[in-house]
Design a protein that fits this description.
With 577 residues, this protein is α/β, with parallel strands linked by helices. The protein folds into two domains: 15-318, ABC transporter transmembrane region fold (Up-down Bundle), CATH 1.20.1560; 340-573, Rossmann fold, CATH 3.40.50. It is 61% helix and 9% strand. It contains 21 helices and ten strands. The strands form two sheets. Strands 6-7-8-3-9-10 form a six-stranded mixed β-sheet, with helices on both faces. Helix 2 packs antiparallel against helix 11 (277-306) and helix 6 packs antiparallel against helix 11. The longest helix is centred in the N-terminal third of the chain and has 50 residues, at 56-105.
Amino acid sequence: MGRYARYLRMLHSQRGLLLGAVALGALAGAASGFGLPFFLQKVFREVFEAGAGRSFREVVLVASLLPLVFLVRGITVYFNQYLLNAVSLNLLGEIRQQLFDKLQRLPLLYFDRKRSGDLLARILADTSQIQDALVAATREILLQPFVVLGGVGYLVYLGLTNRDAALLLLLLLLVPLMTLPVVYIGRHLRHRGRQTQRSLGELSDTLSENLLATAEVRAFNLEQAERSRFRDELARFYQASMKAVKYNQATQPLMELVAAAAIAIMFVAAYSRHIPFETFAAIGAALFFTIDGCKRLVRIANEMSKATGAFERIESILDEPETVRPPDRPVATGRFRGEIRFDHVGFGYGDGLPALHDIDLTIAPGTVCALVGPSGAGKSTFTKLIPRFYDVTTGRITIDGIDVRHMDPAALRSQIALVPQSPVLFNTTILENIRIGRPGATREEIVEAAKAAYADEFITELPEGYDSTVGENARRLSGGQRQRLALARAFLRDAPILILDEATSALDADSEQKVQEALRRLCQGRTVFIVAHRPSTIEIANRILPFDQGEVVTVAGFPPAAVGPFADRVCKAQGSD
């Protein structure tokens, strides 16, 4: 139960629906487990024993009571299941919302370690597995216990009022035997459930990679290899699933065998003691409801065991530490001046290799700083530490003298505009995609930002202009168009700190010239970091930082091959020949 404590706490808000379901379940259980055997043993027996002594009207009245019992049972079961399904779906919605909220708070380092396909499987497939288990559980968990209690209650009543039936009540001792297969099977189902969910995660990851690399698959003729890889993952998932099915389907036959043995023994005992048939039939009916209720509860136990792997995978996200957290008392900041200090900063991604080490420098407000160097030298990592996408391993980063860890992350990032190398556009209109830069901006402000980024010219040529939907992954737009929309966001944000990570890499020569002119205006009065491999991109820079193996180095220590076309500007910026 400790595993489900989190979910039981969520049920507090559903207590009204739960109480109603419990009351209805109690009525349904009494009508099934107690009412039907009572009719068999008492009501019908008295009518038949009376023979002609009963009037036809009385017989009709007695007969009508049986459909009335079933009517009560049907109505109570219907509304019991309706309320319980409402509870389970509300609980599932709360789980999914908490899971999504948690993902919004986790640091980027968590996503660097996880595969997107596996995360999608956890959010969609694992929660669906939990939904199936919860729906099945709520369908039975607050109904069948009352059915069992009703059946047991009637057996106890019969034993107290009929001495001949007392011996048969000893058969109730056979009922716990039905739990023995559950202990064995449940243990294996938990293990197989974990295997199945892991296999499903691998399958989802393979599918996700394929969908993201459709062009590469065709360009390198990987279709057959991808089909084989997916077929292998399907086979592994099939094997894991069938092992779970093997144990799950063995439960009911074993329990039915125990139940049949109990009824057979009861029949022999009843015949030996000359117990009347109506008493035997009533006991059989009560025992049927008792055993059937137990079977259903055991089936639910197995369903929950199968879902153990899904619960664990979901909880691994919900329990993940939130390392980049807002401070308890964040420091209030006005608009940044833009002085940024790296005070002996070191950082690693957790793989044992430092990405940056002992970065010690100060960037004055209004500096346009170019970061150059070979791939993997640490340039992008350097810029990602400024908006606190990651926390430094050693040292500290300050903006205007305030440690970024002492600021509210949302307040910090609201004063930083980021234009990544591969900007993400959401499947909504161009207008809304630009508005991300400053929620609440007017249409006129958005159009002005687009014009400043030289995006207005291609936007107005689209059939619906700014109201055009970009499509999934913005595949309807070219790489250059996507980058100009990302630049428009930066213009709209009007932040004092600007980070450009290969922001012009996808532009053609004509577009790049226009955007360079726009960037000159955008960079005025701001602290800017430009990660670039093109010399033209850093023409507006007044400070250049050469990176090599996670360090900011001098020209003398900078590899000549890495300097390349930047040599003249690097030397000029550092006062070297």
